[in-house]
Amino acid sequence: MTATDSFLRNRQPQASADSPARPLVALHDVHLTFGDNTVLKGIDVEVRRGEAVTIIGPSGSGKSTILRCITGLLRPQQGQIRVGDTAVETLRTEDELIALRKRVGFVFQQYNLFPHLTVLENLVIAPTRVIGRSRREAEQEARALLGKVRLADKAHAYPGELSGGQQQRVAIARALAMRPELILFDEVTSALDPETVGEVLTVIRELVEDGMTCVLVTHEMRFAAEISDHIYFTEAGRIVEHGPPEQIFGNPSHERTRAFLRRALGAIPRLPAEFNAAFAPAPAPTEG
Ligand SMILES: Nc1ncnc2c1ncn2[C@@H]1O[C@H](COP(=O)(O)OP(=O)(O)OP(=O)(O)O)[C@@H](O)[C@H]1O
Ligand SMILES: [Mg+2]
To answer: Is 190 among the domain residues?
Structure first.
């Protein structure tokens, strides 16, 4: 087995008992237009409970737009979006949308912590104010979550006193404090210094291993290959192809996917050499 195979196969397969069940998230034939710019042109995506699903694709291809549709932040002109039993595209009132957002955590590139609140208060505020959890319970859970993201010692620090990677881990803990059914991650490491990317990816990897349902948009291809159950490749508002990481990274069926990966992987020199070689333009360059 090559190094590539071993990191692709590292993921344990999900327990099969649940697999025929209905997906937790399902987008069907979703079309979305801004003015005269059609951004989504018939998107179908399914995410089962406990799965990690990653969306990859070029800038402007619609990845963030797909995530924003799942949270009800954007309403498509056509198509269906289900989260559990909720038909997201039919939600109208602010109360209905708030109810959905309690169930769907969202972590962005910009962590947007409350700068005037300590780390602990950032985690406690929504559970106590939005879902009426007792202060005691919310604080106890917040401390446990800070331990999980390895920031137990920062409970009383202010966000401005933390590194970018630490703030992003607080943002993940804050999303978890609402006990969401799933979490969406939109390029959460893109704004970080390279040396802090790993600590954030480790936290996400552990969430996936714990069985949290995750939908990720990331440019970290090796990470995506390692943790995802399923990969969707988007281009110009369409899903070009999707499949398990072994297929998308190891044997993509579309030349567009192959060309994208060649460019994307070219930017990540720490990938195993044989992984890069699989996508290098023929003849594969050899390192001297
Ligand atoms: N609020 C908006 N109003 C108008 N156009 C928008 C809006 N949000 C996104 N778009 C357009 O929709 C298209 C898809 O944007 P989106 O942010 O989903 O791309 P992306 O795949 O996430 O790209 P990136 O990798 O750069 O984050 C782009 O052409 C973008 O300009
Ligand atoms: Mg985006």
So the answer is: yes
41-98 per-position pLDDT tens digit: 999 999 999 999 999 999 999 999 999 999 999 999 999 999 999 999 999 999 999 9
The verdict on residue 148 lying in a domain is no
Helix 164-176 / helix 135-148 crossing angle, nearest 10 deg = 130
Q: Which residue lies with its CA nearest to atom 12 of ligand 1?
A: 39
Distance between alpha carbon 180 and the CA centroid of its chain, in Å?
14
- Mutate which of 27, 33, 34, 215 for ligand 1 pocket (most atoms within 8 A of beta carbon): 34
> What is the chain's length?
288
Q: The domain spanning residue 261 has which CATH number?
A: 3.40.50.300
Residue nearest atom 9 in ligand 1 by C-alpha distance: 65
Domain that holds residue 34: 3-10+20-110+181-268
Q: Which residues face 45 on adjacent strands? A: 27
Q: Which ligand is nearest to the CA of 57?
A: 1
Give the total number of structural domains in the chain.
Answer: 1
Long-range CB contacts (within 8 A, 24+) of 27-30:
27/66, 27/69, 27/70, 27/79, 27/80, 27/81, 27/82, 28/79, 28/80, 28/81, 28/82, 29/78, 29/79, 29/80, 30/66, 30/69, 30/76, 30/78, 30/79, 30/80, 30/81
- pLDDT of 94-139, one tens digit each? 999 999 999 999 999 988 899 999 999 999 999 999 989 999 999 9
Residue 11 Cα to ligand 1 midpoint, Å, equals 31
Give the tokens for residue 33.
């237009």
Residue 53 located in a structural domain: yes
CA 275 to centroid of ligand 2, rounded, Å: 26
User: Is 221 inside any structural domain?
Assistant: yes
Q: What is the model's pTM? A: 0.87
